[in-house]
Amino acid sequence: MSTRAQPAARRPAPRRRPAGRARREAVRRRRAGLGAAVALLGALILALIWPGVHDAVQEIALPLRHEDIIRQQAAAKDLDPALIAAVIYAESRFRDGQRSAAGAQGLMQITPGTAHEIARKSGGTEFETGDLATPQVNISYGAWYLRYLMGRYAGNRTFALAAYNAGEGNVDRWIDAARRRNVDLTIAAIPFAETRGYVRTVLDARKQYRRSYARELGY
Prior knowledge:
The chain has helices at 19-61, 67-77, 81-92, 112-122, 135-152, 157-166, 168-180, 193-212. The protein is mainly alpha-helical. The chain folds into two domains: 17-61; 67-212, Lysozyme (Orthogonal Bundle), CATH 1.10.530. The longest helix has 43 residues, at 19-61. The N and C termini lie far apart (106 Å).
């Protein structure tokens, strides 16, 4: 057995990463850190301004204007203010200058013929068709007609809203036909698809207005 010292085994030198790859990884890490910081800052800012953002989104999805007139007319006509707001939403989305192909005008989409009949029954002797462009007059006449329909159909919102959309004559025929079959005229049984959709839209919007604008509508 030899007694000569054996040369020490050499450890392999560590492999160095190419300089370009190291730089790319450093840049990637810096970018990731910067992105996380920006996301955190954005979250903090959003948390601070969230009430305003939420209100703006709500206002776009469910607009409300002229709430003072709506409250006034609801009290004068013994109506739910959210119901008036919901009808305006369904009719015009609160756009004052809205006009339909049938000639209905304004926020609550009242035809000149209906408006003149309302003026005659309510004592509005100085009414002119151009007055329908005025929110005060339009909401006042729309609320009067809605109150009339609610009374005519014994407080049944479905019938009153269907008549607001499709006319009293159609609703009367639908009710008579349903009674002859010994069934109720439900929303689903309304023959006109447009009117079915209209009634559902108003009733759903009414719930949302009561929930989202309780203070503005005087609840």
